[in-house]
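Annotated sample (chain length 204).
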Amino acid sequence: DGPTELGEVRLQIPGRHYVLDALAALAVGLRLGYPFAGLRDGLAGFTGTRRRMELKGEAGGVRVYDSYAHHPVEIAGDLQAGRSVAGEGRLVVAFQPHLVSRTRIFGEAMGEALGAADEVVVLDVYLAREDADPAVTGALVADAVPLPRERVVFVPDFDEVPAELVARARPGDMVLTLGAGSVTQIGPRVLDLLRDGVAEPADA
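Output written by the structure step:
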């Protein structure tokens, strides 16, 4: 006997890696004897976990998402998902490297992965439990982003990041904040600025 078509499953979370996770969960559920309809409904109703391609809101025609991605492979996966959400719009990304040691090892690869975005704003390294190293900053990541220089900027002052994102975003775009540190605080500030009508095209 060949394969049997059980039906279609629609997910609320974008990204190929989430589709693969859902397929694995579906397969386990079916193997355990649960009915397809119940599994389908459960997967369709799942809105995701906090900080995993989490929609923070929309203002001025710009959707703002936040995700925990802080490793090159995670960055690549979330940018692929972001691209599918952005559709015809552009993908404007703010990335905060996490840990000096991780940035020293993976900084170049992080920058290369960020090249899948249209506009990139790189924050300084979130130190967490480590001491600062003047030789390892967000500039190391920004310098490795394979985009034209006018589309990449290193912004070491955290408080300047929201306005930089708003200046680069246009209606129809998606702003995505990435990282394991305080970058999660940026999205709400971007939305506030957009609501206040501060947004202007970067080339204006």
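Annotation: DSSP finds seven helices and six strands in the chain.
Annotation: The radius of gyration is 19 Å.
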